[in-house]
């Protein structure tokens, strides 16, 4: 059976580039939907040329025309969710997100902030339809405020009517099962809304629950802001016993592409609960201590203190902390058994020789 033709939306982003490379390496005719202005970004232009040289087909459209706003605001009012106004021009699907997170309110004290707004558009329906007609499978790896714009992808897929599988932008926990607090609750809630929209339209799907990206989480032992692995003191959220799964980004790409033509993953959640990469943070720290031959001082952050930090920290800085609460304190990646609506990647594809956490840490010793 011939490999499916795959369209990647967001294929030059952090996650998308790994999925794109895997698609090409595994022999799929691969199409990347990119904006005309990509050439103005030297790094992305170089990446795009490498994909073209590997055989990828490039579909240039205005559908992903992007504006990047960086607004430095000194001593402006604290953001609240009670106001109407939003920073910057937005489309309707983004307005709900921005109303919740970036509205200005005169009711509270002053705060020094840097607001970053990434605004994209997936509203060129005709371009989307034409691109989707070329392929069998659509994979979205869009991020940030473009999550709800995937409703436009769903509309286009429904109109085309021949797509065998849609993989929306997931690549984290199983968002139907998390016990998240704000602002992670709202951010992840949009991904759940996209799931329900896919199902309501009867579109064949696979949801990739890849858990934590290893390159994000392992080099700092889950401590945002650290550049190098700690060698003296380490902070651990909660009691450190919740099991967390770490997957190298290249392996996320490989497992994702393995699933697109597999009937066992049709209308299922694909969990990457890799046995060799499932650790509590206590176990992860112990592994690191063994590698460097030194015992670290451990500072445990109780859940109550962590929740207070989330509450007191302005958005977007508190988003990552709230996600850490879900993953590291609540154990939302592993605190349930995989049911009939899901399958586990390493069991389906034992031939994939994924990078283990043990191997990954060796480069930092």
What key attributes describe this structure?
3-stranded parallel β-sheet, 365 residues, 5-stranded parallel β-sheet, 13 helices
Describe the protein's topology.
Elements: E1 6-9, H1 16-25, E2 30-35, H2 42-53, E3 57-61, E4 67-77, H3 92-101, E5 110-119, H4 125-132, E6 137-140, H5 150-160, E7 165-167, H6 184-200, E8 206-209, E9 212-213, H7 214-217, E10 233-237, E11 243-247, H8 249-259, E12 268-271, E13 278-280, H9 281-292, E14 297-301, H10 303-312, H11 317-329, E15 342-344, H12 345-348, H13 357-362
Parallel strand pairs: 1-2, 1-6, 2-3, 6-7, 8-12, 9-11, 10-14, 12-15
Antiparallel strand pairs: 4-5, 11-13
Helix pairs in contact: 1-8, 4-5, 10-11
Radius of gyration: 21 Å
Helix fraction bin: 25-40%
Proportion in β-strands: 15-25%
Strand order of the main beta sheet, please?
A: 3-2-1-6-7
Ends distance: 45 Å
Q: What's the β-strand tally?
A: 15
- The arrangement of helices and strands along the chain is EHEHEEHEHEHEHEEHEEHEEHEHHEHH
* CA-based shape: globular
Q: What structural class is derived from the secondary structure elements?
A: alpha/beta
Largest pleated sheet? 5 strands, parallel
Treating each run of at least 4 consecutive H or I residues as one helix, how many helices? Answer: 13
